[in-house]
Design a protein that fits this description.
Elements lengths: L4 E3 L3 H9 L4 E6 L4 H16 L4 E6 L4 H6 L7 E6 L2 E7 L3 H12 L19 H14 L14 H11 L4 E5 L9 H12 L5 E4 L4 H11 L6 E4 L2 E4 L1 H10 L1 H8 L30 H11 L4 E5 L1 E2 L2 E2 L2 H12 L5 E4 L4 H11 L6 E4 L2 E4 L1 H10 L1 H8 L8 H9 L4 E5 L1 E2 L2 E2 L2 H12 L5 E4 L4 H11 L6 E4 L2 E4 L1 H9 L3 H4 L3
Parallel strand pairs: 1-3, 2-3, 6-7, 10-13, 16-19
Antiparallel strand pairs: 2-4, 4-5, 6-8, 8-9, 10-14, 11-12, 14-15, 16-20, 17-18, 20-21
Helix pairs in contact: 2-4, 4-5, 7-9, 12-14, 16-18, 17-19
Length: 492
C-alpha cells in the first residue's frame, strides 16, 4: 500500500477506495497551475515517506463531480481522510502545512512509533525539510499551522523587507511577467514595460506565507502590489492612474530609476491588445473577430462549462454564484458547445483554463482569482469602477418602495380614486387622523402586487407600513382607529 501517487478517474473509484478505511490524502490540481505542479512534487515525495497511506490525485476540472462533492473552487486543494471520513482540508501552496497535516493523518512510518512531521522522512525533499524545520524553530513547535500569527514574526518581517528591497522597482504579482495569472497583474507588467524600467517580480501564488504576510506588512489587502525603493506605490488601479497622468514616470525619475530602456526587464511582451492579448496569436481573422464579438457581447461576460442554470463543473458554478451574489447581469457562453471557441479563446486570452470572466472586454481571470477578489471586496470595487451597476431584485425594489415614505399604503387605485372599498376605508381613516402618507397602486404593477404578498407574508390588500414595518390591512387599521390608537401608532 502507498509509496506512489495514483490518479483517480471517477467518483465511483474514489468512493471504493475511501470505503476501505485506510488513511487517504487527496490532491485536487490543475495542469495549468504552476502552484499545483510545485505542490504535486511535494505530494509525491510524501507518498514515499508515508507508505501506509494512499495518495490520490485528481485533475479538478476534468472531474467536476468529485470537485463539486468536496466544494473545490481553487487549486491546489487537499482533502485528508481517516476511516473513510473527511478530517481536514488545506487550500493553497503551503508545503510545510501539507507535510504536517499528512503526518497527522497518516501516522508513523513504522507501527508502534509516534507520528512525526513528514519533514523528518527520507524523501520529502530539501525545500520542505528546511521550510518545516525553520518554521518549527520560529514557532517553538514541530506542528506548523497554515495560518499566520496575528502579528508578523521577526523572521518573516525580515524576509518580506528583503524581498521588497531586492529591486529598486519590485512587483508582487500573480504569475510571472511572461505568464500573468490575473488581468490586473498583466496590466501592471505592461505599464512597467511601457515605462521602460527594469523591475523584479515575485509570484505570490507560490508562497502562501509571503502572500498573506505581505498584506499585513504593506497594509494593502490585494495584489498586485508595486514598490519603488522599498515604498509601496499601490495596486493596479493606482499604477494605471499614475501611468496615465505621467506621475509614475516622475516618481521613477525622482528616485533615480533608469527609464531609458537600456536596462529593461527580461520579459516577453504580451502585446498591447485588451487583456494582454498578443497581436500575433496565429488565429484567423474570422475567429478573432468572432471571439472579440463574444467577449464584448455583454459588459460582464463569462465563458464557462455549461449554462448558469446548469453548470458542468464546480469552478463554473462557483463563479456563477459569485456573480449572482454581486447582483450583476452577465452574459455567458458554454464553451462545451463550440470546440473552435473553446480552443481559440485559450490562445486569444493567453489563459489556458475555464471559466474565464471578462468585464468590459478585459480578462479578469478564472475561478480562483474571482473567488479571492470577492472575499477581499475587490470584485465589488472593480465592478463599480467599471460602471457595472447591481441589478435591482424584486426584494430590493419592495424595500425601497416600503421605506419611500414613513407611512406607506399599498392599495388598489390611488387616494383620490380608490378601486376597492377596503382601500377607501383606510384612506379615509388616515385622512381623518391627519396622517400624511405615500401610496402605491398595486393594480399598476403585477410584480409588486404578487411580490409584496410573499415579502410581507400578508395575502391581501391594502397593506399599511410605518417606517418599513407592516402594520396590517383594513381590519387592523379600523380597529386601531376605533381604539384611538392609529395616530399614536403611526407617530411613535
Amino acid at each position: 500500500m502507498g509509496g506512489s501517487v495514483k490518479d483517480v478517474q471517477s467518483k465511483a473509484e474514489l468512493d471504493n477506495v475511501l470505503h476501505e478505511g485506510a488513511p487517504v490524502i487527496l490532491h485536487f490540481w490543475a495542469s495549468w497551475c504552476e502552484a499545483s505542479k510545485q505542490m504535486d512534487q511535494v505530494f509525491s515525495h510524501l507518498s514515499t515517506d508515508f507508505p501506509h497511506a494512499l495518495f490520490l490525485r485528481i485533475e479538478a476540472e476534468e472531474q467536476p463531480e468529485i470537485s463539486e462533492a468536496y466544494s473545490v473552487s481553487a487549486v491546489p486543494y487537499f482533502v485528508f481522510f481517516k476511516d473513510g471520513k473527511t478530517v481536514d482540508t488545506l487550500e493553497g501552496a503551503n508545503p510545510s502545512s501539507l507535510a504536517n497535516k499528512v503526518a497527522k493523518v497518516a501516522g508513523s512510518i513504522n507501527p508502534g512509533e509516534p507520528a512525526a512531521p513528514a519533514s523528518l522522512g527520507m524523501a520529502a525533499g530539501p525545500t520542505v525539510l528546511e521550510t518545516v524545520k525553520e518554521l518549527a524553530k520560529e514557532n517553538g513547535s514541530s506542528q506548523v499551522e497554515n495560518q499566520l500569527p496575528s502579528g508578523l514574526n521577526d523572521a518573516l518581517k525580515k524576509q518580506l523587507q528583503q524581498l521588497v528591497n531586492s529591486h529598486p522597482v519590485m512587483l508582487f504579482m500573480k504569475g510571472s511577467p511572461e505568464e500573468p495569472k490575473c488581468g490586473f497583474s498583466r496590466k501592471v507588467v505592461e505599464i512597467l514595460k511601457e515605462e521602460k524600467v527594469k523591475f523584479g517580480t515575485f509570484n505570490i501564488l507560490t508562497d502562501n506565507e509571503v502572500r498573506e504576510g505581505l498584506k499585513k506588512f504593506s497594509n494593502w489587502p490585494t495584489f498586485p502590489q508595486l514598490f519603488c525603493k522599498g515604498e509601496l506605490l499601490g495596486g493596479s488601479d493606482i499604477a494605471i492612474a499614475m501611468h496615465e497622468s505621467g506621475e509614475l514616470k516622475e516618481v521613477f525619475r525622482d528616485h533615480g530609476i533608469d527609464t531609458t530602456g537600456s536596462d529593461e526587464a527580461k520579459a516577453s511582451d504580451p502585446g498591447s491588445g485588451k487583456g494582454g492579448i498578443s497581436e500575433s496569436t496565429g488565429l484567423s481573422t474570422t475567429l478573432t473577430t468572432r471571439l472579440e464579438s463574444l467577449i464584448n457581447s455583454s459588459l460582464v461576460m463569462l465563458f464557462m462549462k455549461g449554462k448558469p442554470d446548469e453548470p458542468k463543473c464546480g469552478f463554473s458554478r462557483k463563479v456563477v454564484e459569485i456573480l449572482q451574489q454581486e447582483k450583476v447581469d452577465f452574459g455567458s457562453f458554454d464553451i462545451l458547445s463550440d470546440e473552435e471557441v473553446r480552443q481559440g479563446l485559450k490562445v486569444y486570452s493567453n489563459w489556458s483554463s475555464y471559466p474565464q470572466l471578462y468585464i468590459r472586454g478585459e480578462l479578469i481571470g478564472g475561478s480562483d482569482i474571482v473567488l479571492e477578489m470577492q472575499k477581499s471586496g475587490e470584485l465589488t470595487r472593480v465592478l463599480a469602477e467599471k460602471g457595472i451597476v447591481q441589478k435591482e431584485t424584486i426584494e430590493d425594489r419592495l424595500k425601497k418602495l416600503i421605506t419611500s415614505s414613513p407611512v406607506m399604503l399599498f392599495m388598489k387605485g390611488n387616494p383620490d380614486a380608490p378601486r376597492c372599498g377596503f382601500s377607501s376605508k383606510v384612506v379615509d381613516a388616515l385622512r381623518e387622523e391627519g396622517v400624511s402618507f405615500g401610496s402605491f397602486d398595486i393594480l399598476t404593477d403585477e410584480e409588486v402586487r404578487q411580490g409584496l404578498k410573499v415579502f410581507s407574508n400578508w395575502p391581501t390588500f391594502p397593506q399599511l407600513y410605518y417606517k418599513g414595518e407592516l402594520i396590517g390591512g383594513c381590519d387592523i387599521i379600523m380597529e386601531l382607529q376605533n381604539n384611538g390608537e392609529l395616530k399614536s401608532t403611526l407617530s411613535e
